[in-house]
Give the backbone structure.
Amino acid sequence: MKTATVRHLRNHYSAVLRWIDAGEEVAISRRGKIVARLVPESDGRRQRVDWSVSAALGMDKSLLPRLSAKASAALRAESQGEH
């Protein structure tokens, strides 16, 4: 959860709104005390993923086994809900 002061919310509303849009809950503080919480509406939308913190970025992909065309097509069909 991120924290923003009332002043930061007033001066940087669009940045705080981007945090909320990304699925982040934001606590609003005034004089060091939390006075409100802004939470994203849960409407079933997929939340954004921060791929910059993914462990896969540092992974040596050359060690992964290669998929055959048939196996690749099967994975793609499965991910798209086809069986």
